[in-house]
Amino acid sequence: MAKLNNLLLDEAVAVHAARRRFLTGGGKLLAGSLLLSTLPMQTTLAAATVANPAAGPVPLIIDTDPGADDVIAILLALSARDRLDVKALTTVAGNVQLRYTARNARMVREWANRPDVPVYAGCSRPMLRAPIYAAEVHGAEGVTGVKIFEPKQPLAKGSAVQYLVETLLAAAPASLTIVTLGPQTNLAMALIEHPEIRQGIKEIIMMGGAHFNGGNITPAAEFNVFADPHAADVVFKSGLPLTVIPLDVTHKMLTSPERIDRLRKIGNNAGKIAADILDAYVEYDIKQYGLPGGPVHDATTIGYLLKPDMFKGRMVNVEVDTREGPTFGATVVDYYRATKKPENARWITEGDTQGFFDLLTAQLAKLP
């Protein structure tokens, strides 16, 4: 714990310095426009990554704030080692404080028996706004329904932002996919500090935002974006290929008692853990929204990576509202191209619910 506290202090100092440059317009980012200026904006977005076994596993970094649905997403990704080459888990404050998200990611790694995947602790607070958490949804320490423990394997040395910078600078051009399951703080800070890291990114798959559905933390905003809208703004304006899995689709892809029971009946530890976590987690959304089941938001991103043909969406322009007020943190989606602004994201609106839960069940059966 002492090492983690020292890491958090070092990261806080680094984030404070970058935040100061951000506010004053120094460094490589213009605070007024949030436009990365070192590298040219891409005018077209690449097609979605398909985890094609014939082409080899997709090199992948998962940036996460576990969080119950993050746990399911990580288990799903780590189960698919023939399709996804998970290089690291980078953690950020979001659903709960960083000390819990960093520990929870290591717990999932242990459940999946994947000691080969390093876990890095990242930013302990948003770029500019006051921190917020979602303990009322995920519990005080981020995971409910299972026994919490201190994992045997420690965090990797160094911060998540440092890892992203070094890894992406050294990567082959457009070779790494990044999945973000929480606030965008780590990735945004890396882009602010070293815009040239864009060269190593093939695409970003983001769980976040809402348009047709409305928000889940305010009437207008989804939690991951609301928790650090300035960071999300940097990512949306980066010009990088971006696919967004918003509440518009995740609130349609719901659990049921039968779907959770199938996970439990797999008969392994991973299936039981997933079922126990989901049983506890989905109660909040069922009561809050009157849904027949609960969404597994973050796991949908990995489902998209593994089987993109199960999903439908379109290219759109997305802007993040960073003004204080009732729409703070909202994703403003030009779904019908009213503004004629350049498209900067693929916005997913439909998914094959049963296909996703079939995939989840089949994959978790591969874990211990």
Would you write up a description of this structure?
- Helix 2 packs parallel to helix 3, helix 2 packs antiparallel against helix 11 and helix 5 packs across helix 6.
- With 368 residues, the chain is of the alpha/beta class.
- The two termini are 28 Å apart.
- The chain has a single domain, classed as Ribonucleoside hydrolase-like (Inosine-uridine Nucleoside N-ribohydrolase, Chain A).
- The chain has a 9-stranded mixed sheet, sandwiched between helices.
- The protein is globular, with a radius of gyration of 19 Å.
- It contains 13 helices and 9 strands.
> What percent of residues are in strands?
5-15%
Order of helices and strands: HEHEHEHHEHEHHEHHHHEEEH
The largest sheet, given as strand count, sense and whether it forms a barrel, is:
9 strands, mixed
Low-confidence segments, given as residue ranges, are 1-9, 23-47
Task: Describe the structure using short key phrases.
single chain; alpha/beta; Inosine-uridine Nucleoside N-ribohydrolase, Chain A; disordered N terminus
Protein topology:
Layout: H1 2-24, E1 58-64, H2 68-79, E2 84-91, H3 98-111, E3 119-121, H4 135-138, H5 160-170, E4 176-180, H6 185-193, E5 201-207, H7 223-227, H8 229-236, E6 242-245, H9 247-250, H10 257-264, H11 269-289, H12 299-306, E7 311-320, E8 331-334, E9 345-351, H13 353-364
Parallel strand pairs: 1-2, 1-4, 2-3, 4-5, 5-6, 6-9
Antiparallel strand pairs: 7-8, 7-9
Helix pairs in contact: 2-3, 2-11, 2-12, 5-6, 6-8, 10-11
Would you kindly provide a brief summary of this structure?
With 368 residues, the protein is of the alpha/beta class.
